[in-house]
């Protein structure tokens, strides 16, 4: 498999023959005497304004890192879009809820979490304690959470301190760091106990107030029955901005695929439900992407208790047999939009998570350049200044020379325009002064193909366009932009399926022939 990183700025997914023709007008623009078709007579001079030879493998360039042009084993080119479009980490998907309690007696069994915990390794958190007692006198206090111990040395979570009396009341308030403590209850309950004794005579007392809370808890590892939680997959749009230069047309992909991939290292099942999954088209329509794979809520695979740290992948492979992806992509695609709802542990399973647990939602779209297109209309432009040609020339002609090694007819027209407009959404908004080619000159025929469907030879064509003096003076005096309008069809309009190979190319030279006054 060969991978290409070509040399033009386009970023979308559509038929290669179409892309080839678009690119020829924006690759290399020159004002030099080179590669021109010079007539046999003198003293004419020919200047090349555009000289471009574009192989199929170099059609696209400066693509985002998610888009590649790939030549597959048989030489057919394919465009692949691949990106991680959403992710959920352990911290954002699950939070240990805070817990607070007033202890009425010196020993109690409490369920201090709203879920069943079998093991919890605390990454960070705080234990807050507040105590008060009357009558007066200092009180020695020992507080213990019997199910918790230090990770590295097995020491229990035991706090010893002294409540100091101000002459009226003995009070105590302090916050303790719980980093690297393990909590491993043997049942749903946590045993909380304290021992309070007067310093003066060592007699035991029941405190008037014993309040504690667990706050800001983060975990390295948690194992238990967590219940279910939901989170939003936020609304997002994937833009294919190359279609801003295209005003109309359709592209039929013979074998498009879209993989929705969910990578899950949570030790719990996940469920993803798309509220929106649709194609936004160039014409402004919205086409929902549907599939039989979505008929029932799908439970995403997850690692078991013996697979801590493992990431499981669940792939929903959409193709033309189980979805409408072929029809959804037929109008010119402008964007893909999505949002949804994720549910962690929808079946209330016993499982685990770590601080590195993560869910990644990815899209992989593969569009092999096999199919056909019809009426693909593309505009391109560049700035020009013809004022230097106004004087001392007897005659000026424009010349277009093409060599076509792709199986597509190309209808081309060149326009001369003012600089008072822009190309917006595939149309020019300014003033067009004139056009260059006559109707019978505009079609550049497709390259011939053999019985195996491959191009066998280059189709060549030369056009010389002569303009009368009035039109020519208007163009040379006022033109500020040259516009190219290209209409591409595959196999004379299809729908015959063609394949685009890595050795295909299109070459065009636009020149100007000048006869000077001697």
Report strand %: over 45%
Rounded to the nearest angstrom, the distance between the terminal CA atoms is 59 Å
Average pLDDT: 79
Helical residue percent band: under 10%
Number of beta-strand segments: 36
Backbone shape: elongated
Number of helices: 4
Main pleated-sheet profile: 7 strands, antiparallel
Oligomer: single chain
Unreliable stretches (pLDDT < 50, length at least 5) are 1-43, 58-63
- Helical/strand content category: mainly beta
Give the radius of gyration: 36 Å
Descriptive keywords:
518 residues; seven-stranded antiparallel beta sheet; six-stranded antiparallel beta sheet; 4 helices; elongated
Task: Write up what this structure looks like.
With 518 residues, the protein is mainly beta. It contains four helices and 36 strands. It has helices spanning 16-23, 90-93, 325-328, 469-478; strands at 2-4, 29-32, 45-55, 67-71, 77-89, 99-102, 107-110, 116-133, 139-150, 156-165, 170-177, 181-183, 190-198, 204-205, 209-225, 229-239, 246-253, 257-264, 270-281, 286-288, 299-300, 312-318, 333-344, 351-354, 358-368, 370-383, 393-404, 408-417, 423-424, 427-428, 432-435, 443-444, 459-466, 481-490, 498-499, 505-516. The longest helix is centred in the C-terminal third of the chain and has 10 residues, at 469-478. The model is unreliable at 1-43 and 58-63 (pLDDT under 50).
């Amino acid at each position: 498999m060969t991978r290409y990183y070509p040399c033009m700025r386009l970023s979308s997914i559509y038929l290669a023959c179409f892309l080839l023709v678009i690119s020829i007008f924006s690759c290399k623009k020159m004002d030099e005497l080179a590669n021109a078709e010079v007539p046999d007579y003198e003293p004419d001079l020919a200047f090349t304004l555009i000289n471009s030879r574009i192989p199929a493998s170099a059609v696209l360039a400066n693509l985002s890192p998610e888009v590649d042009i790939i030549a597959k084993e048989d030489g057919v080119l394919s465009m692949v879009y691949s990106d991680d479009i959403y992710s959920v980490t352990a911290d954002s998907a699950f939070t240990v809820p805070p817990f607070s309690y007033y202890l009425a007696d010196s020993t109690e069994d409490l369920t201090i979490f709203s879920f069943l915990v079998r093991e919890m390794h605390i990454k960070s958190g705080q234990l807050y304690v507040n105590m008060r007692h009357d009558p007066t006198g200092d009180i020695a206090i020992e507080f213990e959470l019997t199910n918790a111990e230090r990770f590295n040395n097995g020491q229990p979570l035991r706090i010893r301190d002294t409540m100091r009396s101000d002459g009226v009341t003995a009070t105590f308030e302090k916050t303790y760091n719980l980093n690297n403590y393990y909590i491993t209850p043997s049942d749903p309950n946590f045993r909380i106990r304290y021992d309070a004794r007067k310093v003066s005579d060592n007699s035991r007392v029941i405190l008037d107030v014993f309040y504690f809370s667990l706050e800001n808890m983060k975990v390295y590892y948690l194992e238990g029955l967590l219940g279910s939680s939901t989170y939003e997959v936020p609304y997002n749009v994937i833009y294919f901005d190359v279609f801003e230069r295209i005003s109309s047309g359709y592209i039929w992909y013979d074998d498009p695929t879209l993989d929705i991939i969910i990578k899950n290292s949570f030790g719990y099942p996940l469920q993803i439900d798309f509220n929106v999954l649709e194609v936004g088209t160039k014409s402004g329509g919205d086409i929902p992407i549907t599939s039989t794979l979505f008929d029932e809520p799908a439970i995403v695979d997850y690692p078991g208790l013996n697979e801590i740290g493992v990431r499981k992948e669940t792939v929903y492979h959409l193709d033309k047999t189980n979805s409408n992806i072929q029809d959804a992509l037929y109008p010119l695609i402008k964007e893909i939009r999505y949002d949804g709802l994720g549910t962690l542990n929808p079946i209330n399973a016993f499982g685990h998570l770590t601080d590195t647990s993560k869910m990644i939602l990815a899209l992989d779209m593969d569009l092999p350049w096999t199919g056909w297109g019809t009426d693909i209309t593309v505009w391109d432009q560049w700035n020009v200044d013809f004022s230097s040609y106004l004087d001392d020339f007897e005659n000026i002609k424009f010349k277009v020379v093409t060599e076509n090694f792709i199986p597509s007819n190309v209808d081309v027209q060149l326009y001369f325009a003012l600089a008072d407009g822009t190309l917006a959404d595939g149309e020019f908004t300014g003033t067009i002064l004139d056009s260059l080619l006559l109707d019978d000159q505009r079609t550049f025929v497709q390259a011939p193909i053999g019985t195996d469907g491959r191009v066998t030879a280059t189709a060549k064509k030369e056009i010389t366009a002569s303009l009368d003096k009035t039109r020519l003076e208007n163009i040379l005096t006022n033109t500020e932009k040259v516009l190219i309008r290209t209409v591409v069809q595959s196999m004379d309009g299809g729908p015959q399926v063609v394949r685009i190979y890595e050795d295909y190319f299109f070459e065009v030279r636009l020149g100007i022939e000048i006869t000077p006054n001697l």
